[in-house]
Amino acid sequence: MGYPMARRCVGINVPLKVTITGEHAVVYGYPALVAAIDRKITIKICVRPDREIRITSRRAMIIGDISLICSEESCRGDASPDYVERFFSYVLKAIEISSKIFGDLGGLDIEISSGIPAGSGLGTSAAISAGVVAGYSYLAGRSVERKDIASIARRVEIEVQGAASPMDTGAVSLGGVLLVKPLETEVFKRVELKKALEILIAITPKKRSTRETVSMVRDLYNRRKTIVDHLMRAIGEISEEASKALEEGDLKTLGELMDINHNILRALGVVDRESEDIAEIMRTAGLEGVKISGGGWGGAIIGISRDRSRLEQALNSLLETGYTAFISSIDFRGIEYEEILK
Amino acid sequence: MGYPMARRCVGINVPLKVTITGEHAVVYGYPALVAAIDRKITIKICVRPDREIRITSRRAMIIGDISLICSEESCRGDASPDYVERFFSYVLKAIEISSKIFGDLGGLDIEISSGIPAGSGLGTSAAISAGVVAGYSYLAGRSVERKDIASIARRVEIEVQGAASPMDTGAVSLGGVLLVKPLETEVFKRVELKKALEILIAITPKKRSTRETVSMVRDLYNRRKTIVDHLMRAIGEISEEASKALEEGDLKTLGELMDINHNILRALGVVDRESEDIAEIMRTAGLEGVKISGGGWGGAIIGISRDRSRLEQALNSLLETGYTAFISSIDFRGIEYEEILK
Q: How far does the CA of residue B178 sit from the closest CA of chain A (Å)?
């Protein structure tokens, strides 16, 4: 009986993201254009009285609940496939790095909910990393700027994956549309939209991880350096021009640039047959810009149009064919906190 | 009764050609790789006792015989669709230019036979222009080098079309495989093959003329100059590397380069859906390199493989689907003469 013990908790909402143009090229230092979307991952973090780390994930779309309990020595989970391990490794690394920066909080309960499967090219791992870092800093009583959360979350990605562009963690932390220039001092340039942008997003299971597709492109680059470098430069220029098109509200030009970018990604060998089939369904419905978004070989395929009804028509065609798809707006808020007491 | 009057005649065989890599980019001065194939156009030219020009064409694949009779003042044909007029305009221009260079021969009977439809991206107009120039020079008693025939035939193409790269007339006149560098003093560099090269060629009716596709690309270039220039540079480099791959007998590399080139052509917007379907049939049959050849929007789609049986498998798949296709070897002879007396 009586009231439960008061525990300090925080809820974090982190948007997911699409790469409008520039994936792969951004790995080589060229600009990319990225947008946070109104689909979010929510993370609830509470300080525990003991030193255990309990992580629970609810991901409606591909698997049921999964969880992991860690003591100081080891972790045990109720599900052990690779992707669960991979998924939780971002959380554990984010806790480890955060505790070094913000001080030790002891044990934590972490509950992650997302309607979007991990590995869909929508920046799930970046959102989880940034969300845990943000929550940890909040519970440690520290006020941290979004761009610093982005930067710490990128460290998490780099330590887990071996390498990571600043793009994903920047987009999910800051929100909005960003022109990312990895080699410049000011990495993120905020793109002001003249018109609202709605994006049709289709998702298929990834057949190869981003790490694999990045390595495929690296392999091609090593063999055909001059050719691939020209293609990367073309993609970088596409992102610069796409950014201007968005600022001018010129969705026709944006669409043309996305189409060119998609076909250069085909030339780089990262567009599989199923993604191309989905792209073709979107084109047939009259969308002006259709492109894979992310590393390729499955994941997200995005489409835009000046005409809302065409987006809906394409959405219906995709759903009727049995694909997972939805229309998303841009998220302009980035990471958000909500204090929870219970 | 009696013997027919002896007339001076000559027969000319001119190979057709495929562009292995580099179409469109060659218009902007970048290298292209072109090959003469063992499918030929034959042209028989006889001097007439009067001043009439009688042109007859036998093109088995798309139409029956067509013919044109010209006096000094005008021409009348038994068929008048646009493409007939376009087709004969090369012959008449070749006669006009040849007569200025080699002297007036008076009336001519010209009989053209080809199993390949004009406008298929296989250099029909170049072959006809070069063949008539070669025949005319022969009948005028002049010995002319193949490269000079190529150069005069290019003038014919330029006067009829408004513009023309030296590629097609060079390939059909000289034969073999050539790396074409339009901006260099030595425009044609002969590529010595280490291994025999067989090419699967599928043909569909062209939905847009080469003039139209060149103008589409020009339009894109004017709007997106930096991007398109990077793509053209990439294509130019592809042709240089493809030429090396052929000299080394490395068909795997050649195939990879063709695939990249094809997708850059997609990015340039010149690959229509039907050509892509044909390309996909070839890919499904396991070909290593698959590419449109020529301006795009129909015409020729080519494929190569290290494995002869795969070429045959792809050929069968195409024929079963109802497409026109054949396997061709490289022609190393270029323009050939055979004297005819009758």
A: 20
